[in-house]
Write a structure and sequence with these properties.
It contains 17 helices and 11 strands. It is an alpha/beta fold. β5, α6 and β6 form a beta-alpha-beta unit. The radius of gyration is 23 Å and the shape is globular. The two termini are about 30 Å apart.
Length: about 500
């Protein structure tokens, strides 16, 4: 994906932004404690793992580099073995922290992890970077349109309110909360580290960020791994639209598993019966919200909970979803019910303001990156059309989004991936967040890449799923810099 020099010059002329020179002098980065105060448990955990932290000031607007600045939070675990270089990490979101990632990545890389300085950069307005919080009553904008026109109309009101809150509190910064600016921040960090090149490990949205970085700053990446990869041409505000088929399939597989354990869960003795139970519960939640502890769960929330819990095919995750549906079944019969711990965390995100900052930044990035239809009727038509083939999950992936009401349009066009990249792309066959087809499309666009496919349903493979085949191939690549000779498929 190496970009032609003439195209780079054209991009700089159009945006008024010239890439930083690869041999720029190193500003001072004063690495020190990660603990910011007596209640900073995260900082203590980082230091316990051997990390050190610092901050880097960068322009809010790279078109006006001497104007307002924002701060980036950084963490690093330094190499203790024979050093290969610096590895930057982003585990996705958008809106997820990366400062917390170096300890996890060091462990996943085993002995090779000691040969890299592993750096996590919280993207602009995330985590330890300059914050952004729109004061939302929820930690996420993702909802189902529900079962009726009335529930969809309530979603229009809800999503419009989320957008208004962001405009009221953060209007001056919203146009600058974009993936392209985060890529510029990454290059500022590379320069501050004094590195001509960095290696990169990205997961999920982090794969899109990595592709954008390589396109904007060709020649600055050494070893390049994209795990659970997005197709950059399909990157959109309706994050799960292309993953609907995979989510429906995962729900059916979970239903078959649950039916095989009917003596424990009593949700149906066949896959069809379990799915019928789920549909009945969604209808019940539409008529009257289900009371689970202190929570109220209607037909716009229950399908989102399902999507959250079908992303992994391992037994503990399937057990949690079955327990959650058991809980909803009890609530539908007006019996006292208490959510299991894993479900409680999801309900807190959906129904309280505790994670408002996460949803605020995620929406701001998506709305700043890509323009979407502004007419709610477009979304309603899509909901009605998709519901015919996917009655439970279709109204989630097609629902109206806050970007339809956003106060500002994207200032830059989405990045087109035009040139090759010698990357290692990894994806699970049944990934419910970044479907296999997207990773395959990116692999086709980059003839110099290699692809590893895992026969499993999981999102985020390396260091997460525990597959020796995948992990060994990636670790060997980080050790040698040599891509596998051919594409590989690893059995689950």
């Amino acid at each position: 994906m190496r970009k032609l020099i003439t195209f780079t010059a054209l991009a700089a002329a159009l945006t008024g932004i010239a890439p930083a020179p690869a041999n720029a002098s190193e500003p001072a980065l004063r690495w020190g404690t990660c603990v910011t105060g007596p209640d900073d448990e995260q900082g203590r955990e980082l230091e316990k793992a051997g990390a050190e932290c610092t901050r880097l000031d960068v322009p809010l607007d790279y078109v006006a580099p001497h104007g307002r600045e924002i701060s980036l939070g950084l963490s690093r675990i330094k190499a203790t073995g024979r050093r290969i270089g610096t590895l930057m990490v982003n585990t996705g979101g958008p809106g997820g922290q990366a400062v917390t990632d170096p300890p996890f990545v060091r462990d996943a890389m085993k002995d090779v992890g000691t040969r890299y300085d592993i750096v996590g950069m919280d993207p602009r307005f995330v985590g330890r970077s300059t914050p952004l919080d729109c004061g939302w009553p929820t930690g996420t904008w993702i909802r189902s349109a529900g079962l009726t026109r009335a529930s969809f109309d309530r979603q229009v009101t809800f999503q419009r309110d989320l957008a208004r809150r962001c405009a009221d509190t953060n209007a001056s910064v919203l146009p600058h909360v974009t993936t392209r600016n985060t890529a510029r921040d990454m290059d500022a960090v590379r320069t501050a580290l004094g590195e001509d090149k960095i290696s990169y490990l990205g997961y999920s949205y982090g794969t899109y960020l990595g592709a954008v970085y390589h396109e904007m700053f060709p020649g600055r990446l050494d070893r390049f791994v994209l795990d659970s990869a997005l197709d950059p041409d399909r990157y959109d505000n309706r994050l799960l639209k292309d993953a609907l088929e995979a989510n429906d399939q995962a729900l059916e597989e979970w239903a078959a598993w649950t039916a095989a354990h009917d003596d424990r869960y009593h949700l149906g003795r066949t896959r069809t019966a379990v799915l019928a139970t789920v549909r009945r519960l969604v209808r019940s939640a539409s008529r009257e919200p289900l009371r689970v502890g202190s929570y109220r769960i209607d037909d716009t929330l229950l399908p989102v909970i399902l999507i959250n819990l079908i992303a992994d095919d391992r037994d503990p995750f399937r057990e949690l979803l079955a327990e959650a549906v058991q809980t909803f079944e009890q609530a539908s019969r007006h019996r006292p019910s208490t959510p299991p711990d894993g479900l409680r965390d999801i309900l807190d995100t959906l129904t309280t303001s505790a994670e408002s900052h996460y949803g605020s930044v995620q929406a701001s990035i998506l709305c700043g990156d890509v323009a979407v239809p502004r007419d709610p009727e477009v979304y309603w038509r899509d909901v009605r059309s998709t519901r015919r083939r996917s009655p439970i999950l279709g109204p989630v992936v097609e629902n109206v989004v806050p970007c339809a009401f956003w106060s500002s349009a994207p200032r830059e066009v989405p990045t087109r991936i035009t040139s090759d990249a010698p990357a290692l792309i990894v994806n699970a066959r049944g990934d419910t967040r970044t479907p296999l087809a997207g990773a395959q499309a990116l692999h086709t666009r980059w003839p110099g890449s290699r692809m590893i496919t895992l026969d499993a349903s999981v999102h985020g493979v390396f260091g997460n799923y525990g597959d020796t085949c995948v992990d060994t191939l990636i670790i060997d690549y980080f050790r040698t810099g040599a891509l596998p000779a051919t594409d590989r498929t690893c059995p689950s």
